[in-house]
């Protein structure tokens, strides 16, 4: 029996995934959590075979949760299930240590196939992606500006693109406002954008803003 941890802040998503996975008869959802902190606390005293995590959640974000999961259990398979498009997000999560990336609009059978694939020790990307993205493989050619950002820079880029203030980002990531300001300046320099307004426009144009 494959034991599964689901981390998503939407009850309907957790219940839907549980229904799909347990219907197979070979999978069991052993825990559900609405945020990363509770999931990490659960993992301190419990075990599972795979964690399914969302990208956008209150508290710590998907990237941070993935990093902490890797610190707590470096071998635990992690499948990211997100509403964000693969061509813009998958590379960053794979680079950060995810074993697979799946969009929420996928068919139920794709979810089951992804879990089996990742638990089996393989990387999973849907049929829409024909190869591991350049950012994950380390290739440097033909990158868009946002693809040159580190995982932390990209995380802050997305928060800025969602029009969150530096103070709010600092609170969310538990960093100082000065540190966030330094990251913001570095992001603008790397992407060639002049200010937050251009950053938001860029994110919308590249389907990165939510």
In short:
This protein has 210 residues and is an alpha/beta fold. The protein contains ten helices and six strands, in the order βαβαβαβαβαβααααα.
Could you please describe the fold and organization of this structure?
- By secondary structure, this protein is an alpha/beta fold.
- It folds into two domains: 2-137, Response regulator (Rossmann fold); 145-205, Arc Repressor Mutant, subunit A, CATH 1.10.10.
- It contains ten helices and six strands, in the order βαβαβαβαβαβααααα.
- It has a six-stranded parallel β-sheet, with helices on both faces.
- Strand 5, helix 5 and strand 6 form a beta-alpha-beta unit.
- Helix 7 (151-161) packs across helix 9 (177-191), helix 7 (151-161) packs across helix 10 (196-205) and helix 8 packs across helix 9.
- The chain is globular.
- 34% of the residues are buried.
Portion of residues within helices:
40-55%
Biggest sheet architecture: 6 strands, parallel
Total domain count: 2
Mean pLDDT comes to 85
Rg, Å, rounded: 17 Å
Structural class: alpha/beta
CATH topology of the largest domain: Rossmann fold
Please provide the count of β strands: 6
Q: Which word captures the global form? A: globular
How is the secondary structure organized here?
Elements: E1 2-7, H1 11-22, E2 27-33, H2 36-45, E3 50-53, H3 62-72, E4 78-82, H4 86-95, E5 100-103, H5 108-119, E6 124-125, H6 134-137, H7 151-161, H8 166-173, H9 177-191, H10 196-205
Parallel strand pairs: 1-2, 1-3, 3-4, 4-5, 5-6
Helix pairs in contact: 2-3, 7-9, 7-10, 8-9
């Amino acid at each position: 029996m494959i034991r599964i941890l689901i981390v998503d802040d939407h009850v309907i998503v957790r219940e839907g995934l549980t229904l799909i996975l347990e219907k197979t008869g070979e999978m069991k959802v052993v825990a559900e959590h609405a945020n990363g902190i509770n999931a990490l606390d659960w993992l301190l005293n419990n075990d599972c075979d795979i964690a399914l995590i969302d990208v956008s959640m209150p508290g710590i974000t998907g990237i941070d949760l993935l990093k902490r999961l890797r610190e707590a259990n470096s071998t635990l398979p992690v499948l990211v299930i997100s509403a964000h498009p693969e061509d813009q997000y998958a590379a960053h999560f794979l680079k950060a240590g995810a074993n697979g990336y799946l969009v929420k609009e996928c068919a139920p059978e794709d979810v089951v196939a992804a879990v089996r694939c990742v638990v089996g020790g393989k990387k999973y990307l849907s049929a829409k992606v024909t190869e591991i993205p350049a950012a994950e493989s380390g290739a440097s050619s033909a990158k868009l500006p946002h693809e040159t950002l580190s995982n932390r820079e990209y995380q802050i880029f997305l928060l800025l693109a969602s029009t969150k203030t530096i103070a709010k980002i600092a609170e969310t990531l538990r960093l100082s406002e000065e540190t966030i300001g330094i990251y913001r300046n570095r992001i603008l320099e790397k992407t060639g954008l002049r200010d937050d307004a251009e950053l938001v426009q860029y994110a919308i144009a590249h389907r990165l803003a939510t």
